[in-house]
Amino acid sequence: MFRINLYLCFLLFSPAILLAQHKISGKVTDNKKHPLPGVNVYIKGSYDGATSKADGSFTFTTTEAGERILAATLSGYQPLEIKINTENGEQLSIILKNAANALRVVTISAGSFEASDDKKGTVLKPLDIVTTAGAGADIVNAIKTLPGAQQTNDREGLFVRGGTGYETQTLIDGMLVRNPFSSSLPDVPGRGRFSPFLFKGTTFSSGGYSAQYGQALSSALVLESTDLPQRSSSSVGLSVIGASAGVENLSRDKKSSWGVEGDYTNLGPYFQVVKPKQTPNLGPEIIGTSLNFRRKTSSTGLLKFYGYGNWSKMGFSSPSIEYPGDMESYQVRNGNIYTNMTYRENLGKDWRIYVGASFSNNRDNITTDTLGKAQTPADIRVRSSLSQSRVMLTRNIGQFSAIRFGGEYQYATEQFSFNQRPFNYADNYTAAFAEGDIYFTPSFVGRVGGRAEYTSVLAKMNVAPRVSLAYKMDNYSQFSVAYGDYYQKPEPQYIRFDHGLGYMKATHYIVSYQRVASDYTFRTELFYKQYADLVKTVPNYNNNGKGYAKGIEVFWRDRKSIKNVDYWISYSYLDTKRDFLNYPKEVQPDFAATHTASLVYKHFFPKLSTNLGLTYTFATGRPYYNPNQPADKFMSDKTIDYHALGVSASYLTTIRKAFTIFVLSVSNAPGNKQVFGYRYSSDGMRRGEITPSVPRFIFLGMFMNFGIDRRQDVINNL
Amino acid sequence: MKRLLLSLFMIGGLATVAVAQSAQYQDAMSKQVSDLDSSGSFAPDALVAKINTFERIAEAEKTQWLPYYYAAYCQVMSCFVGQDKSKIDELADKAAANLDKAETLNPKSSEVACIRSLVASARLMVDPASRGMKYGMEAGQQIELAKTYNAENPRVYLLLGQSLLFTPEQFGGSKSKAKVMLETALQKYAAFKPESAIAPHWGEPYAKELLSKAQ
Lengths: 718, 215
Known about the structure:
Chain A: Residues 1-20 form the signal peptide. The complex is a heterodimer. By secondary structure, chain A is mainly beta. Chain A is built from six helices and 39 strands. Chain A has a 22-stranded antiparallel barrel. By secondary structure, chain B is mostly helical. Residues 12-19 of chain B have low confidence and may be disordered.
C-alpha cells in the first residue's frame, strides 16, 4: 500500500517535476549589432517563447528540459535555429542575418522607367498615364513628361535623347508594332493607336535596353497587355469628338474572357466651333474596333489574342507658301490592322516558354495638290505589312539568376507608289538573342547579352553586345551602369531607293542612380550616345552620317509631402549634334531642345470626389533651317521657347449602377504661342510658322462602366 | 499484481499527459483569444507579440486551424493600425499564407473568408487610386463567399456595414443602409453561439461603435 501511495504521489507530482521552469533570456541583434525588436524567439515545437523588445532583449520560461532547438524569426531576416540546453540559464546573444527579400534584391534599372501594378518600386502606375493632364490619355504624351523624351509636338513619335522618332520602337507583349501612331497630316502629330487601358505594364526605356529588343537606335516602349479581367462589364464613352462602346466578358469558370470594342471619332463638328489654322476638307473621321480573347490554359499558362482595326480619313487645306494666294490641300485615307497572339507557360524544372505571332497591315492613300496649279494632284500610296514570330525560353538558375534566349523572324513588305510609279521591296529579318541575369549577391546583378541580326534587303548581318550592372546599396538606393550597341535599318523611304545601304548604329553608355521609397522616387542619369553610319542623302544615299548625344536627367516624384497630392518633376539636359540626311555639317538637329522640363501635379479632393491635374512642360527653342543663312550658319536659328500648361479635372461618381467619370481637359490652357519651326518657300522669300492646328484643345467627355457591382467597385478608405 | 497496478498507473499517467497537452492548448488559446477582447491588444507592438504567439502555437500544433486564423487576424489588424503603408503588402502576404493553412484544416470557413476580405481591403489601402478596382472587388467577393458559407455569421454583416459606412456616396456608400446592415449585424451577434470559447467571436463592440457613427 505504501508503495502504491508512492506511485500515486509520483504520479500526482510528476507533472510538476516534468514541468520544472527554465528561464531563457538574451538579446537579438543584426550583424551590425543593432538591436532587433519584434523577433519571435521560441523553443521549437513548444508554445514557449517571447517577442524581443525595443532593445532586442527577450525573456521567457519553458518547461522543456535539456537540449532543445531555439528558433528566432523576423521577416526580412534569415530564420535562425540553434541548439541550446534550457537548463544552462546562460544569456544568449542571437545575431540574425538579412534575408534576400524582394525589397533588397536589385533589378536592372539603367535607362528604363516602368509603370506596373505587379512589381513593387515602379516609378509609375498604369493609372498615372491616364490621369496625366494634357496627355489626353495618350501613352506617348504621358511618357513625354518623363526625362529623356523631347516635346516634339509637331510630329508623332518619341524623340529620345537626341534620337528621331523612328529610333523608338513600340512592342506589345514582345511583338513589334510597325505603325504605333495614327496616320497624320503635316505638322499635326498622330495619336498613339492603343488605349492605355489595354496595358497592365508600360516600360519606357530611354537607352541601354535588353538584347531581347532590336531595331531601335534610341528607345523601346514595351507594353504588356492586361490578363483576364476581374469580371464582366460593359462600357460607354461619349465626348465632344466621338463615342465608344465595349463589352468584356469573363467566363463562369474565370478561365477565359473575350472583349469587343468600337469607337467613332468625328472632329468635323468640333472644328465648326473651334476653327483650326488649316481648313478641314476631309473628315477628320475615324472608325476603330478591337477584339480580344484570353485563356488560362493551366495555372501558369496564358494565351492572349488581340486584334485591332482602324480606318480614318482626314484632309486640310491651307494657304500655300510657295504660291502666294493659292491653297494647298493634303488628304490621307488610312486603314490599319494589327493582330497579336502570344502564349506563355511554365515548362517545369525552372523553364519558361514564350511564343508569339503577329500580323499587321497599314495602308495610306495620300492626295496632295496645290489647288489650281498642278496638272494632276500628287497621288501617293504607301502600304506596309509585317508578319512576325518570336520564341523565347527562360531558365531560372538558383533563387534569382536567369538566362533567356530566343529568336525572331519578320517578313515585311513595303510598297510605295508615286502617281502609279511603284518602288517596292520585301525584307526577311532574322534575329537571335541570349542574355543572362547573373546575381553575384542578391544586391549585385550583372546582365550580359548579345543579339545577332540579318536582314535580306540590306544583305548584312550585325552583332550587338549589351552589358549592364546594378548594385543596391540599401533597401532604397541603387546604382547602375549600362553599355550596349544598337543597330537599325534605315527608314523605308531610303531603303526603297537604295538597297545598298547598311545598318545605322548607336552605342549607349549610361550611369544611373535611383532612390525609390514607397512615397517618393529620386532618379538621375548621365548618358553618352554615339551615332555612326547614319543615312545621308547627299551627294547620294550613303551611310556616312554620324553624331552624338550626351546629357543628364533628373526625376523626382513625391506622393507624401502634400496630402492628397502626387507630383513629379523631370528635367533633361541634352547636348546633341548630328550630320545626317542633307545636313552640310554636324549640328544640333531640328528635333532636339537643349533643356526640357515637366511638372505633373495631381490633386485628389476626396470630398468632391474630383481629381485635378496640371501638367506644365517647358523646352528651350529648337533649331530650324533658314535658307537665307549662309552654309556655315546652317541650323543656327532657334524657335521661341516652348511652354504648355495642360489642365484636367475628372469627377468620379456612380449613375444608377454605372461607375462614371466626367473628364474636362484643356491643353495649353493659357493659349501660349507655340512655334515648332518654319517652312520656307523654295526661293526663301516667304515662310510659314509651324504651330499647333488649334492653339488650345478643349475636351469634355463621359465614360461609364456597367455591370460592376457598386460595392465591389468601391474605393474604400479614401 | 504490482506490475498490473504499475502499468495501469503508467497508462493513467500517459493519459494525463495527453489531457495536459490539449489542456495546454485550451489554456493558452483561451488566454490569448480573451486578450483580443480588450483593445490594448491592438497597439502595434502588442499585435507583433500576439502574431508571434499565435504562430508559435500554430507551428507546435499544426492540426488546429484557429492559431493560423488568429495569427492572420492579428496580421491584418496590424495593417490597419500601423502607420507605415510600405509594410502592408508583406503583412498581407503572411496573413494570406496563414489563411491558406487555416482553410486547408477547416475548409469553406466563413470566418476565414471574412479575414480574406479584410486582407484585400488592407492591400487596397496602399494605393487606393490604382488598386481600388482590383482589391475593392476582391474584398466584396470574399464577403459574399463568407455569407454563402454561413449566412448567420455576424462578422459578414459587420464588414458589409463598415464598407457601406466608409464608402463615399458617389460609389454606393450610404449611412442609412450602413445603419440597417449594422443593426442586422447586432441581431446576428445576439443569436450567434461560438462553437467554443476560443472560436472567433470578435466584433460586437466595434459594430456598436460603428452603429453610433451611422446614426
